[in-house]
């Protein structure tokens, strides 16, 4: 049995993982795989390179195969919702609920994190005829709530129509939009008892065991209507007890729990709220949608899935890459032939959904990888539209699972989206707030044209971005604009110096813009680059303006180490899996502090030592900043005015960005001299960048042998404990 099989992974998938030399699951895989296999929504926060892709691809592939096998064996199909399919115990309904209200798998806790709207839910069953029934509900989180009873005709917004009767936390009872004072307010930790008396046709409530008196007299016209426990919430959460466990305040006067209701119990005939989809094979309706922010990351994820399914027996799981740069007709043909897992970038996916070529009717998994990058890319509305369209429950009772992962989950935007869309997500947070791995030695090199005047004598400087083309600049001028132009030239020289001084032979260089990438590539080619690995500065470029095929080829060339350096933007390199990368250079600091973590996370992965060097200007630098106001969005734009006067430039303040990064990480990043002779970090003995960290105590590979003595000791202690227990048991 492989290590992954102990987490519930199929032997066939475990064997494929073994072939990849994944001896043991990473920490994030060990936490997330069982949660996803168990049917839960999961938020994953972990370092880049920690195995997040495998953590969601493995269980999704397995569940997809198992579903296909059930279809093949005739175990899945048709619709549910009739009396026979109703659960034997009382619970709140997965079906009969509002779109922003979540219900736990046991059906006994409801939650809504929507702050502006009410979302309601009814129970899976109701009572009719005669009898006196009782249930309890506890407020488990702050927010607004209203609970009580409704008929099947009632609005899910309890108490706003004549078919619903509710008691709210503001101390109001309500029916048919008539809100009257009743019983006083209640809130977190309060227990509300709900009494339904069908003999005398009345409803009453209790607060923490104190009877609040009759709230409603039920009209005779409802005498033969079934009544269902119901709730409506606004940014709140409630726990329900229908009698399967002891009540905190047991009822008297002939009232019994709903779980003790007689055979007159009914299930709702109508299913309102969440849409339910018939479960059957539909070729263009995949079971999993995985959204990635870039083409490169989508290709990387697809390759992982293809490796994992290597030993799966029929039925075959079919995957499809849905990105731009590939014939849409080929993608449509593949969908029509049958696709089970789609890995996509937002643009092309939206095209296929809007034209009806790709259906969401059978989607079981909705995955957002690098979620913060997707939100920053402006795809939040698109994500919301997809989530709203996907049926939340399939006819075989399987609930939509949503998985969100990123190296930086702690942004307000990601948390807000998760609260709105996800269903009681489990946090797999092995990272906490952003931190730098101990395998990364990161330093800052200051670039100051006021103290280093070497720029005045450069013979063949780098071609700059043209921001100062209309300004009066030159080696004998010390204006703000001249110093800004000097910074641009100096950074190229410093980059070359950093590479030579530290014998960098394989690394990634981050530039702020696509134009900066192109300029640095040309400069490297001029000083000794090209695409020959033997060249000192051999390089390729990766950014959004390069054609898809060129981007793919350049990335593969770099991965095969046919060139030494990959020059790219943040967007192009986000989440790329490049193993054993020893060096990284920030040509310009990112203006978003969390992106610093993404960048330096390219090195120091899988317990391998890495060096990250950031070139930081000591003075503000004037740079391009094309926004929505720019007619061409940067193409052939020459408007060098500042944005506050309708221009396309800003002053980029790297000293402030460095301060923000240090405050965010809670560290002071070491600074080195302009000769960029970096002393190796000696905390782990002599450092060889790109090699395994010597004193790794719990790396992803090989730590089973390091822990052997500890495991043996624990085994002995367990044996001793069992012996003591058995001896004491024998004495009795």
Category from helices, strands and their pairing: alpha/beta
How confident overall, as mean pLDDT? 85
| Assigned CATH class of the largest domain | Alpha Beta
Tell me about the largest β-sheet. Answer: 8 strands, mixed
Compact description:
By secondary structure, the chain is an alpha/beta fold. It contains 17 helices and 33 strands.
How would the blueprint of this fold be written?
Layout: H1 11-19, H2 27-37, E1 42-45, H3 52-72, E2 92-97, E3 101-103, E4 109-112, E5 119-123, E6 132-141, E7 144-150, E8 164-168, E9 172-175, E10 178-181, E11 191-197, E12 202-207, E13 210-217, E14 228-234, E15 236-241, E16 256-257, E17 276-277, E18 288-291, H4 295-308, E19 319-322, H5 328-337, E20 341-344, H6 346-354, E21 365-369, H7 371-376, H8 380-389, E22 393-394, E23 401-406, H9 412-421, E24 426-429, E25 440-447, H10 480-501, E26 507-510, H11 514-528, E27 539-542, H12 548-559, E28 565-568, H13 570-573, E29 583-586, H14 593-600, E30 610-617, E31 621-624, E32 649-652, H15 654-665, E33 671-672, H16 703-706, H17 708-731
Parallel strand pairs: 1-23, 1-24, 6-16, 17-22, 18-20, 18-21, 19-20, 21-23, 25-30, 25-33, 26-28, 26-29, 27-28, 29-30
Antiparallel strand pairs: 2-5, 3-4, 4-15, 5-14, 6-11, 6-15, 7-8, 7-14, 8-9, 9-10, 11-12, 12-13, 31-32
Helix pairs in contact: 2-3, 3-4
Task: Walk me through this protein's architecture.
This protein has 732 residues and is α/β, with parallel strands linked by helices. The chain has four domains: 3-75 and 279-429, Rossmann fold (3-Layer(aba) Sandwich); 83-276, SPRY domain (Jelly Rolls), CATH 2.60.120; 440-619 and 654-672, Rossmann fold (3-Layer(aba) Sandwich), CATH 3.40.50.300; 702-732. The protein contains 17 helices and 33 strands. The strands form six sheets. Strands 3, 4, 6, 11, 12, 13, 15 and 16 form an eight-stranded mixed β-sheet that branches. A seven-stranded parallel β-sheet has the order 19-20-18-21-23-1-24, with helices on both faces. It has a seven-stranded antiparallel β-sheet with strand order 2-5-14-7-8-9-10, with no helix packed on it. Residues 78-87, 269-276 and 696-707 have low confidence and may be disordered.
């Amino acid at each position: 049995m492989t290590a992954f099989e102990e987490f519930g992974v199929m032997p066939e998938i475990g064997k494929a993982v073994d072939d990849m030399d994944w001896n043991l699951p990473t920490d994030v895989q060990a936490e997330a795989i069982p949660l996803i296999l168990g049917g839960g929504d999961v938020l994953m926060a972990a370092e880049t390179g920690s195995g997040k892709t495998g953590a969601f691809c493995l269980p999704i592939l397995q569940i997809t195969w198992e579903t296909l096998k059930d279809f093949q064996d005739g175990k899945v199909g048709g619709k549910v919702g009739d009396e026979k399919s109703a659960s034997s115990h009382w619970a709140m309904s997965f079906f009969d609920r509002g779109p922003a209200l979540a219900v736990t798998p046991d059906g006994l806790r409801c939650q809504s994190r929507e702050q502006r709207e009410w979302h309601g839910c009814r129970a899976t069953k109701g009572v009719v005829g005669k009898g006196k029934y009782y249930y309890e509900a506890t407020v488990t989180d702050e927010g607004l709530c209203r609970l009580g009873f409704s008929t099947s005709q009632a609005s899910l917004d309890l108490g706003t129509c004549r078919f619903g009767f509710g008691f709210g936390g503001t101390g109001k009872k309500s029916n048919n939009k008539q809100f009257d004072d009743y019983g006083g307010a209640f809130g977190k930790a309060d227990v509300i008892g709900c009494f339904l008396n069908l003999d005398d046709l009345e409803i009453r409530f209790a607060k923490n065991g104190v009877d609040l008196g009759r709230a409603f007299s039920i009209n005779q016209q409802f005498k033969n209507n079934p009544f269902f426990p119901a709730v409506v919430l606004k940014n709140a959460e409630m726990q329900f007890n229908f009698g399967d466990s002891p009540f905190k305040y047991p009822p008297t006067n002939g009232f019994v729990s709903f779980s003790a209701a007689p055979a007159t119990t009914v299930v709702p005939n109508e299913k309102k709220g969440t849409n339910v989809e018939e479960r059957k094979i539909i070729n263009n309706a995949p079971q999993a949608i995985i959204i990635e922010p870039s083409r490169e990351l989508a290709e990387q994820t697809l390759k992982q899935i293809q490796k994992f399914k290597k030993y799966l027996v029929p039925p075959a799981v079919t995957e499809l890459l849905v990105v731009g740069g590939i014939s849409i007709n080929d993608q449509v043909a593949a969908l029509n032939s049958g696709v089970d897992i789609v890995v996509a970038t937002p643009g092309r996916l939206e095209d296929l959904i809007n034209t009806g070529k790709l259906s969401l009717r059978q989607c079981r998994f909705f995955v957002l990888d690098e979620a913060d990058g997707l939100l920053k890319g402006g795809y939040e509305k698109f994500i919301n539209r997809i989530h709203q369209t996907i049926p939340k429950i399939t006819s075989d009772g399987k609930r939509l699972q949503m998985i969100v992962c990123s190296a930086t989950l702690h942004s307000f935007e990601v948390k807000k989206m998760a609260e709105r869309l996800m269903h009681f997500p489990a946090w797999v947070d092995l990272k906490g707030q952003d931190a730098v791995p101990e395998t990364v030695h990161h330093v800052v090199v200051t670039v100051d044209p006021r103290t280093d005047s070497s720029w005045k004598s450069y013979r063949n400087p780098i071609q700059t971005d043209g921001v100062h083309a209309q300004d009066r600049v030159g080696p004998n001028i010390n204006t703000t604009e001249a110093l800004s132009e000097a910074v641009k030239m100096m950074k190229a020289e410093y980059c070359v110096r950093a590479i030579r001084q530290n014998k960098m032979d394989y690394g990634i260089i981050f530039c702020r813009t696509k134009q900066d990438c192109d300029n640095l590539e040309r400069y490297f080619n001029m000083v000794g680059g090209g695409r020959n690995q033997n060249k000192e500065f051999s390089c390729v470029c990766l950014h959004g303006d390069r054609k898809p095929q060129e981007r793919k080829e350049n990335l593969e060339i770099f991965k095969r180490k046919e060139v030494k350096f990959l020059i790219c933007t943040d967007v192009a390199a986000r989440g790329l899996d490049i193993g054993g990368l020893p060096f990284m250079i920030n040509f310009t600091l990112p203006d978003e502090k969390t992106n610093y973590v993404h960048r330096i996370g390219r090195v120091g992965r899988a317990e391998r030592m890495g060096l990250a060097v950031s070139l930081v200007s000591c003075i503000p630098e004037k740079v391009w900043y094309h926004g929505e106001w720019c007619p061409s969005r940067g193409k052939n734009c020459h408007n060098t005015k500042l944005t506050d006067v309708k221009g396309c430039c800003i002053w980029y303040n790297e000293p402030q960005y460095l301060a923000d990064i240090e405050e965010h990480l809670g560290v002071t990043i070491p600074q080195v001299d302009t000769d960029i002779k970096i002393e190796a970090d000696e905390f782990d003995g002599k450092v060889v960048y790109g090699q395994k960290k010597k004193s790794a105590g719990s790396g992803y590979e090989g730590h089973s042998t390091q822990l052997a003595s500890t495991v043996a000791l624990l085994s002995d202690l367990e044996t001793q404990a069992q012996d003591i227990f058995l001896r004491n048991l024998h004495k009795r």
